[in-house]
Predict the structure.
Amino acid sequence: MMLLLRVGLMFPPQIPVLCYHQIRDWKPKDKARDKEYIMPPATFRKRLKMLADSGYHTILPDELYAHLTKGTPLPSKPVMLTFDDTDGDQYHIARPEMAKYGFKGVYFIVFNNINKNRAYMNRSQIRQLSDEGHVIGSHTLNHPNIKKLKDSDWVNELDVSARKLETLTGKPVKYFAYPFGIWDQRVLPQLDKYGYLAAFQLDQPRDAAKPLLTVRRVIDDGRWDNTTLNRYLQRGFGRR
């Protein structure tokens, strides 16, 4: 397809993709740098209200993929909400809050975190998210640093993780998020090999040949106010 070739030869326009981890109140033991990853529930509620009031529409990876490869139109002011690591508060807090506005999100699951302890989601919760129209993607089997993986690790972290999630949800797993947001060139052909359509990193330059496998995201910093986030949504996704 000509459009697919064009995506490989140039950087497609970037759509805002936000990343969330823990959604809980800060604790005295939390370090300052950890608060980037910890979103207080009250702040999260304000975030979603701001997005809704400002006219943003959540999109899912299939829509982004179709837009970038076929030019399929997106709704006005699109934004993607993604959740990493299988944390239970993403189900208990984020899910009902998104439902208020008809928002849908992408949950990138570390499979071996399922049922790990009370802090993580269980199988029925993940299945429910999928049944309700949220997308379940792979965040590997064990959450390793991709740069430290050996060739023998790819099948478990990329393929087995997806197949297990497919068995759990009954739906194909086509999207991947890099643990710690870190990627390198070795992983790109492996993602192609195992059938992923797109992969999501954090706020680093994209790969010129494989922009769909290095889609940028930004962590919605729990210390930001709504004005800061809105400014980033409007201006922060223009870099390579």
